[in-house]
Design goal:
495 residues, Sodium/glucose cotransporter, 21 helices, globular
Length: 495
């Protein structure tokens, strides 16, 4: 316990220290939110990767789907690397950076407003982002709570409260600069911790190495040791939600706004992909041996406790301390991105955009810090709500936000033919698919959202939006040549 506390205290001191150091580099709202749009490849790539993987992945998703899918759960981590990182960077990073510079857009709602010449889209997207990122943030706090409760024996609500305060403190101090620098430090910890976690679980006597572990999985149920597991369609839905979903999430796309130049994008693409392959692959691969490690007995009938109990059983105290810091690192990075993006849609998009357009940078930065605090407090209260599982909360958030925004953002970025009505149809379709899916499934499980297969509904909402937007755009009124030139004539501007 002494070792655990000492390593954790050191991590917290470094985190807060980076926040204090970064405060001196924040002079205006652009510095606070985008780091001056001057972030290099390593910092941007690690910021993207650490925002991607949090305690939600390690504790909630790796535990639940490793238990349900067995070895095939590793495909989720591979999909995250290939689709969620490699393809996302190749298709969207350069275009996002150039177009947001051209349109002077700092946030996703500002992008929608400028790209589609629609004030209404700006308001709707800002409200949706602020409201529906709360469940995602709450799911991360839950993951941390379960992990620390297992390791330290402290009450879960107390742990969540401490983590909430720490997130608010260092983010309010240094904004995106503090977040990015901490992401680099935390990413290094995550890589080392993930590799050690896999080694110790594979070599544990209950697993007995890779071949023996697969054999023991197969002895529980033959499909658990197979390439595509017992439920390939469900597995595919999880891969889609957790991989393709990043293409419509503001906290992920925000990293492309801040990247320094095209050279940094090329290097960042490779770095982020390898990072995701190591972290995501390690998490789901380790989680796939949950049934073997726990003798096919789920702890307290709670899927969110699978990984914490596994790790307590498999790891020595010093390494367990490293893994705790790994979980905290992953989660703090994601939390800071979520809080920063959520506070920006209120202070930049709504207050400066509509309520008080002439507000100066200093006051707007104070306002953003205030809404960081408000968002963190809202997330805390949702996190201490006992009923929803981590997976349910995260999938609800990703399903709604990415379901609504993935198609209008992607097509708006790449295709001149995307119309305003087409984009609105994407908003409506994504939200309606989630709402209808929940309305159909919730009564079947006694209105317990934790028992609904949320990734399936979320994947359907994204795919439906991706189909509807181009179809509607083809038959609705096109933009004028002047507007298209204003939006897409970016190469000359970049040069």
């Amino acid at each position: 316990m002494t070792v655990k506390i000492a390593i954790l205290a050191l991590f917290i001191l470094v985190t807060v220290g980076v926040g204090i150091y970064s405060r001196r580099r924040v002079h205006n709202i652009n510095d606070f939110f985008l780091g001056g749009r001057n972030m290099g490849p390593w910092i941007t790539a690690f910021a993207y990767g650490t925002s991607y993987f949090s305690a939600v992945v390690f504790v909630g998703y790796a535990g639940k789907f490793g238990w349900g899918f067995g070895l095939s759960a590793t495909w989720i981590g591979i999909g995250n690397a290939v689709i969620g990182c490699l393809l996302a960077w190749l298709l969207m990073a350069k275009k996002t950076r150039i177009m947001t510079h051209k349109l002077n857009a700092s946030t996703m709602p500002e992008f929608f407003a400028a790209r589609y010449d629609s004030v209404g889209m700006k308001i709707v997207s800002a409200v949706v982002i602020f409201v529906f990122l709360v469940p995602y943030t709450a799911s991360i706090y839950k993951g941390l709570g379960y992990m620390f409760e297992s390791a330290f024996g402290l009450p879960m609500n107390t742990i969540i409260l401490i983590m909430t305060a720490l997130t608010g403190l260092y983010l309010i101090l240094g904004g995106y600069v503090a977040t990015a620098l901490n992401d680099l430090i935390q990413g290094i910890i995550m890589i080392g911790g993930s590799i050690m976690m896999v080694v110790y679980i594979l070599t544990h006597p209950d697993v007995g190495g890779l071949s023996q572990g697969i054999a023991r999985l197969s002895s529980i149920e033959s499909s658990l040791g197979s390439a595509f597991g017992p439920a390939p369609l469900n597995l595919g839905a999880v891969v889609l939600l957790t991989s393709l979903g990043t293409w419509g999430l503001p906290q992920m796309l925000h990293k492309f706004y801040a990247v320094k130049d095209e050279r940094a994008i090329k290097r960042g693409t490779l770095i982020s992909t390898l990072f995701a392959l190591v972290i995501g692959g390690s998490a789901y691969f380790a989680g796939s041996f949950g049934r073997v490690m726990l003798d096919n007995q789920m702890p307290n009938n709670n899927v969110d406790m699978i990984v914490p109990v596994m790790l307590e059983k498999a790891l020595p105290d010093v390494l367990m301390s490293v893994i705790i810091v790994l979980m905290l690192s992953a989660s703090m990075s994601t939390l800071s991105s979520l809080v920063l993006v959520s506070s920006s849609v209120i202070s930049i998009d709504l207050v400066k955009g509509f309520i008080k357009p002439k507000i100066d940078d200093r006051k707007n930065m104070l306002l953003m810090r205030f809404f960081c605090l408000i968002f963190v407090v809202m997330s805390y209260f949702m996190a201490i709500w006992q009923n929803p599982t981590i997976v349910a909360l995260m999938a609800l958030s990703w399903g709604v936000i990415s379901g609504m925004f993935i198609a209008p953002y992607l097509y708006g970025l790449l295709w001149k033919g995307t119309t305003r009505i087409g984009a609105w149809s994407g908003f409506f379709t994504g939200f309606a698919a989630m709402a209808i899916g929940l309305a159909v499934e919730l009564p079947k499980v006694g209105f317990d959202i934790g028992k609904v297969f949320m990734p399936g509904i979320g994947a359907i909402s994204m795919l439906a939006s991706l189909v509807v937007v181009p179809v509607v755009s083809l038959v609705t009124k096109k933009y004028s040549k002047a507007h298209i030139s204003k939006v897409f004539d970016t190469e000359r501007t970049a040069a």
